[in-house]
Amino acid sequence: MVAESGHSVSPSASKPAKVAEALRLRDFPVDFFPPDPATREDFLRVHDPQFVNGVFDGRVDNGFGNRSMEIARSLPFTSGSMITAAKLALSRRKSRPVVAALCSGFHHATWNEAEGFCTFNGLMVAAAHLLQHGDVARIAIIDADYHYGNGTDDILDRTGLRANVFHFSFGKEFKRPDQAADYLNRMRMLESELARFEPQVILYQAGADPHIEDPLGGCLTTEEMAKRDELMFGMAVRNHWPLVFNLAGGYQKDADGGISQVVQLHLNTFSAALRIIMADSAATQG
Ligand SMILES: [Zn+2]
Hints:
Layout: H1 15-25, H2 40-44, H3 49-57, H4 69-91, E1 98-101, H5 122-132, E2 139-143, H6 150-159, E3 165-169, H7 180-197, E4 201-205, H8 222-238, E5 243-246, H9 260-285
Parallel strand pairs: 1-5, 2-3, 2-4, 4-5
This protein binds zinc ion.
Residues 105, 145-147, 207, 209, 249 line the site of zinc ion.
């Protein structure tokens, strides 16, 4: 899943290893699973064939604006991690309702174009795979990255999958710190909307770029981001909706060029998930 993205402002392509290392170093109680690669057929279900084949052959720009074959080789594994994680969440829905995919956000990739650090749309690759194989009939994509998931909407329109996919992107409406209370209220309101839709799995983009100090984002404090995550995980666990979250965006840089603040924000999402799951299992046993 890991590749060098050249001189891009985005650390996304190297982030999976850094977050995995931090989870191990700090002894987070999580199990690790390798991602199965997505197939060419998986990509062709939601993308223009000329675009897909062009990126894999090095003839068309990827989401980082280059034609790196190293990036191309990582792409089946980043999108594949969403499929693998969703299948794990579905198969273990009783005991382990939350699974993380250590990939980034995907959501700017449209049907026929890479954009904004996103080459292919792994959200839609996973959704279409699960629908095609009959794993589920209804999927929710809750996008809490700072940016609007334009590519996801584009692919939903082009593929006709909208009836099977509930898509809500916070980045379309929530941009400023004075909207933080409304943001969290909107998250609360999603529970009744999702209850009507009855998703069989939720794909949650737990981006770190809504953080108030993010150079490309900025609307929620660290505490508000934790609340955001608790609300999402809380409704998933309460309603028995299996949930996969990914890392999505996050662009804060340390003085030495590292991404420790972004990694910490992602670890906070893991902590929120663990708090909710442990509280739920304590209540169930009690
Ligand atoms: Zn973003």
